[in-house]
Write a structure and sequence with these properties.
By secondary structure, this protein is an alpha+beta fold. The protein is built from 3 helices and 4 strands. The radius of gyration is 33 Å and the shape is rod-shaped.
């Protein structure tokens, strides 16, 4: 008596679950690499533009021993060089409290469209300054 031989008709192939895991792994790695490249390009762009903040103006204001209430302005390129052309700064100095405590509102803007780039209020103690509006002076000298 002859028994029919069992033949395995199934071909060796990947199952659907294995294919899905491979696809998910591939796209996860692809998107991670794209995010890394995008972040690197953004960092390079950020490094090409000059970083602008109020620190140079703060340094200039801290060099003086005497504050007089009022407004001053100028070009940022005069302080920092040609890389900063097209930016202006404005300071408004007022006495904050009595006893020679002053605040300076510093604003840095683009020259063309007056967009505010940086803005900060800084406090200074300048005991050698003349009397301000809080100390009874009526006109800034």
């Amino acid at each position: 008596m002859k028994f029919p031989q069992k033949t395995n008709n199934r071909r060796a192939a990947f199952s659907l679950v294995e294919v899905m895991i491979a696809v998910v792994t591939f796209f996860t790695a692809t998107f991670a690499i794209l995010a890394l490249v995008s972040q690197s390009v953004q960092n390079v762009r950020r490094m090409q533009r000059p970083m602008i903040d109020v620190a140079p103006i703060d340094a200039q204001l801290s060099l003086t021993n005497i504050f007089v209430e009022g407004t001053a302005s100028g070009n940022l390129s005069d302080l920092l060089g040609d890389s900063y052309k097209g930016y202006t700064w404005t300071t408004d100095i007022e006495e904050e409290q009595t006893n020679k405590l002053f605040h300076a509102d510093v604003v840095i803007q683009r020259s063309d469209d007056k967009t505010i780039i940086a803005q900060e209020r800084l406090l200074y103690y300048k005991p050698d300054s003349p009397a301000g509006s809080m100390d009874g002076a009526t006109v800034a000298k």
